[in-house]
Amino acid sequence: WLRIASRYHYKVIKEVFVKYRQHPHNKSKDCQSMLEAFRALIEKTYQSLPLESLYLRAHCYGRLNLFLAWRAMEKKDYRQAAYFRSQAIAHSPQLFYSQGSIRLLVAIAVVRWFGVQTFDRIRRFNRSVRSFSLLNKATL
């Protein structure tokens, strides 16, 4: 994908074209191995990019840590989620104000103040609302 993106113009399409199945033994459930793999990918990518692109590397690390924070939330490892969020902001301070970071901060706060059960209920409710709205969009 990186080689293609370096040679051709591309656009972001905000529509789901691919879904993948998750199960307890997925490699994507192990945040630490994902961190190491993505670090290697980021470093390899930036070796071949022009020097004027290097400023983006810190933002890549920030986005990676934010992604891993959400993975940790899914695994119910809330301490690790808070750690990855702080790492995301340390790498890329502008992420502090991003929608994903603010949502994550609220999610971690709900767990700390009201407990895991309350967070799980809120998450189930949000997912059902989202799937209901997606279902309604599909029938229109």
Please describe what this structure looks like.
With 140 residues, the chain is an all-alpha fold. It is 69% helix and 0% strand. It is built from six helices and no strands. Helix 2 (31-47) packs antiparallel against helix 3 (55-74). The two termini are 34 Å apart. The model has no long low-confidence stretch (mean pLDDT 83).
Q: What's the arrangement of secondary structure elements?
A:
Layout: H1 2-7, H2 31-47, H3 55-74, H4 78-91, H5 99-114, H6 116-139
Helix pairs in contact: 2-3, 3-4, 3-5, 4-5, 5-6
Short description:
With 140 residues, the chain is mainly α.
* Structural class determined from secondary elements: mainly alpha
Number of helices: 6
N- to C-terminal distance = 34 Å
The parts where pLDDT drops under 50 for at least 5 residues are none
* Average pLDDT metric: 83
The helicity comes to: 55-70%
Computed CA radius of gyration, to the nearest angstrom: 17 Å
Largest sheet: none
**Tally of strands:** 0
What global shape is seen? globular
SSE string, helix = H, strand = E? HHHHHH
**Oligomerization status of the protein chains:** single chain
Q: Beta-sheet strand percentage? A: under 5%
Name the descriptors.
mainly alpha; single chain; 140 residues
